[in-house]
Amino acid sequence: MTSGDLLGHNGDRIRPDRNLALEMTRVTESAAIAASRWMGRGDLKAADGAAVDAMRFTLSTVAMDGVVVIGEGEKDEAPMLYNGERIGDGSLPAVDVAVDPIDGTRPTAFGRGGALSVIAIAERGTMFDPGPCFYMNKLAVGAEAVGRVSIEASVQENLREIARAKRSSVGELTAIVLDRPRHEDLIEEIRIAGARIRLIPDGDVAGAIATAWPESGADVLFGIGGTPEGVITAAALKGMGGELQGKLAPRDEAERRRVVASGLDPDAVLSLDDLVDSDNCFFAATGITDGELLHGVRYTNVGAITQSLVVRSQSGTVRFISAYHRLEKMRQYHLIDVGPEGPGEAMG
After folding, report:
1. Longest alpha-carbon distance in the chain
2. Rounded to whole angstroms, how far apart are CA atoms 268 and 246?
């Protein structure tokens, strides 16, 4: 059986033909609502814990045999959604799962914008395992610039190629970069090239996805961010028609040696297919706090309103979904504890 094949009990080949991304929207919605109750309260652990609890509980209701490939950490560090954990009800299809209950824990805890709850799913055995390497250098572009850029080329060369692909000038391009000291030289290169820069404080999943959404105004993402987020982003960009290239970025020589010992090449360029080797993958994201891509969770006198992005690579369909949630119903079905006196946690 190849890594992309799924076999049923009678030996017939089975593929995840359901649009699992739509079902995953329930998962990210519940996590986003749980995390949003801690918005601005300054408690990072409580916000993350609430999102993890809600996501895991809702995942347990999904008809699938899932294995967490990208999760909250190894089992001795994270009690739930750890790497290797089995999730779903155990029925087919068999899938790899990458989760980030909060992409942007600090923005959530301190009341800043751009936090998301995200999840990606692909056929079993098709998601890249980053091993011990936490960071990755990334280059993301939308459909118009696919095949025109290279992470091994200079910033200036890539910006010129993107401008040619978009029939515009470099000065009209906007580059997304995580606002980190490690990117000072990168930012200076972009300025010298003449492009505009949008610095983001946290969470480069939204920044990379924005390059494939014309209305976002983003043309390219440069810089080093989390490797797990790169795998999740790859699933989204496969459906949106964009491109992501990556190179592992060990933090020191000791980590580089661990990467090599794990069988990975830190100098290799990773393509979309290297990160997610499946043409049938699914992605869902729900806004926790207001961002340029999605609205955050909003409350009314009867419940909560969420906005989600849903992507399926097989059909190339991208959906924006606004949902209205009656919180007493969520309590009734134990999807989440959202008591009137303050933040709660998912109930399992």
Report:
1. 61
2. 8
